[in-house]
Structure formats: C-alpha cells, structure tokens
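[audit] Reproducing an earlier prediction to check determinism. Same input, same settings, fresh worker. If the tokens differ from the archived copy the diff job will pick it up downstream; this log only records the rerun itself.
[audit] input (280 residues):
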Amino acid sequence: MPTPKSTIAVIPTYNSLDLIAARVTELLTSSFSTVVICDDNSSDATSETLKALTEERVVPILGDQNLGPGGNRNRVLEFLERQDSDHLFFTDADCQVTYRENLVELIDEGFEESDVGVVGFGILNPDGTPMKWNYGDLMHPVLEAADQRLEEMMDRKQIAKEQFMIGAPSRAASYRMLSEKRPTVVGWVAEGCFAIRTELFKELGGFDTAMRFHEAHDLNARVQRLGYRTVFNPIPLVQHLEYDSRFERRPEDEIAAKFHYFQKHWGMSEEVFRHLFSLA
C-alpha cells in the first residue's frame, strides 16, 4: 500500500466575509490535513468570523497589512515551517467547489510522476462553461503584444475565432485545450485552482510579492527553471463566482505586473515595454 500523502488546502481571502464559511465547509468534505485561511488584512468582519471557527483542521492566519494576492498566499510559508505536508492546494474564496469526490485523491494522482511540480485544474464560469485564460503558454514578449491585439479584434468580431487560433499562438492554447480530456503539459496554470509540491513552494519562497497580477506566470516559470513540469488537468473542480474585491486597481496592477515579469525574465526595459504595448 502506498503511503498516504498529506495535503494542505490554502484559501486566500480579502473582504470575502460572505464567501469564506462556505469554502471551508466544502473543503472539509475532502481529506485535507489542514485548511489554512490567509486573510489579507480585511476591513470587513472576516477576522472575527475566522477567530470564531472551532474546527481543529482549520487554521486562520490574519495579516496585519495588505500584501496583495501573492503576498497573502505566501503567509502559509510560516505555517509550513512547523507543519509537514506533501502538497499544497490553492483555491480562492470566490471559487465554489463543485467536484463531488475527494479532492486530495485527485491531487495526489497528479504528482505520480516525480518531475511534475504543479498541477492546475479546470475552472467553470458562473454559467457553467469552461473558463478561458486559466492555463496556457507562458507570456512571450514579442507574441504577447500581437496576440493581445488579435484577441481584441476577435472580441470586436473583426476576425473569426479560427483566425485567432492560427494567429495568436501564445493565447490560443487556452482555447485549444478546452476540448482536451487528459492532463496536458502547459506553461502556466491559474493561481485560483492549482496544487504544488510543498517543498518546491518553500524552495521558491512562494509567489513574487512585487506582483499583484500575473503572479502565476512567474511562479510557473521559476518552477520550470528548476526542471519541473506544469500540468493542466481539465477536470473542473471549482466554479468562479466572480467576486472581485480589488477591481478598482486591476488595470494598473496588470500593467505593472506584466512589465515586472518581462523585466525579470527577459531583461526588458521600460521603454521597450511601453513601445510593444502602445503605452504613453
């Protein structure tokens, strides 16, 4: 008999008072050794709600400052110094668990091959359709700018989806794999529903705290630099409820994070970045 694996679930939360209790209840139906809730210094009553939880498998970590999504998830690192586990499973407070079997068993299966470092899973839109852009190829500085424009043209119905698929290789992966039925090696998977080897997450120091967007691209790029693969399993585990507590600063966060990523991994200057993406 194989040795049972210990898997910890991690839920980052920020002003998600109406969501967090339901997520904890859903995750406790699976055999997670612990459910860690990382609160990013919420201004609502989330902290009071978390302090009132009595289930012994639930561990709240209350932040005293707002670190953003990546930095908030990294709060689990301190807990990991005194708690052994094999895998971490991250999902967001606004991702309702729809998978009805034991999540831990499915997660463990994803790491049967020793060079798999990260496994991402399917996410559904509120209407039940598969979500795009929760996996695909890593961002490429030349392709990304052109492909983004093609996506805008497709959204305006200036080109057909088939033309987009041919012309936008760095973005078409997400569309292309929606019909796949088996796990597939990819460049990145979304931070809202993925698992990672615990020791690997610790070795990497978690997410890059300078990024409040695109942090999954950066994490997976560093995972692969260490010789591990990222795999996307199309089985949907959660349904995204589209509760966005940070919407007001999303556009500026996205631009800043994209520049940080290309500067970090490609040595791109700000002048070149602004030229590629037509920024003033």
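[audit] rerun output stored. Observation attached for the diff report: The chain has a mean pLDDT of 90.
[audit] end
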